[in-house]
Amino acid sequence: MPVGPDGWFEGGKTIKVEGGIKARSRRGSIGEEWWSRRFIDILEGICDKGRLDRGRRYARQGQVLNLDLEPGRLSARVQGSRAEPYQVEVTIPVFDAEAWTRVEEALAHQAVFRAKLLAGEMPTQIVAVFDDLRLPLFPAELDMKCSCPDWGFPCKHLSAVLYLLAEAFDDDPFLVLAWRGRARDELLGALRGPAVETPPADPLDVPDRPLGLHDFYSPAVSLAKLKELPGGASAPPELLLRVLDPPAVRVRHIPLVDLLRPVYRDLGEDQAS
């Protein structure tokens, strides 16, 4: 097995592939959203910088042939210098049903978390919810395997796969939760609560009550019950001007409502006399 001066395995020339998965990021760091960057920070904290650099190049060249994510397991094939692609696998612990019930109850009691998740967003404070339950959302350690002969950990093939996973997290933050064992639809269904099926009300369904001519012309309230306001009190003549929104009209810089108010009062005095 050829080994370079820095102790790394050195294979032959990398076989270029067509149709591989290429990272969108062409330079600099990979991962745009906060949850992707959180995952990358963990990755870069436990992995060798040189192999990570090589892994980024592999990810950008499209050397990863496929990326399959399921609860607790990420698998991929990466084309290296050998004819047969290398098999890569990354596993993390999956939360059981009881743990997810606790998570969903905690999220449902926080209106902000519930609203954002139902809107397809990942609130930053969600990490604290998992931490408080002693169920870390992002794994501190990753169980990683690659079929390549490089004894280093992780190799560039694993690094490339993990960088592409971070970009997949960018596209769909619910993959972070799915990797821990809860699919998007299951989580959102639990946050919405049980569906109650009620037939829609028919707007045309009204009580069938015959209407006679005597009903039409009869007052709804007995005339005997209509009494004059005590003390002869009556509504002010400019009541409408107080209730309605004033028109945005001015006459010689004077609001129209101010000009109409004394006119209404005069009319009221004329009717009283």
Automatic annotation (TrEMBL):
UniProt keyword list: Metal-binding, Zinc, Zinc-finger
Keyword Metal-binding: yes
Protein origin, superkingdom: Bacteria
Gene Ontology terms, MF aspect: zinc ion binding
Pfam families referenced in this protein's UniProt entry, alphabetically: SWIM (PF04434)
Positions of the SWIM-type domain: 138-166
Name of this protein: Uncharacterized conserved protein, contains Zn finger domain
Taxonomic source organism: Asanoa hainanensis
